[in-house]
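Why do we care about 3D structure at all? Because function follows from shape, and shape follows, mostly, from sequence. That is the central idea of this module. The next example makes it concrete: a single protein chain, its amino acid sequence, and then its structure expressed as tokens.
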Amino acid sequence: MYEDKQDAVNFRKILSREIIKMAAQKLMNSLRTVSLEVWNKTEALLSEESKRHRIDPNQTYLVKLGDRDRSSSFDIAIVK
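And the structure:
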């Protein structure tokens, strides 16, 4: 009788681990899909905005980014 109970406990542990592995894999696959979708939307938005602001893709631009009070700022060069 003890062995049957122990086998049932071991089986539940193994099953639980497998379910966790499957759930983790499914979440990772979903994350990859969502990341690709978001990146595609980001690229589309950047493309639209660069056209709207007439940004020449063959030009190099220096952009200053930072806080309004300039306590922390840095330059970014956007290069073709």
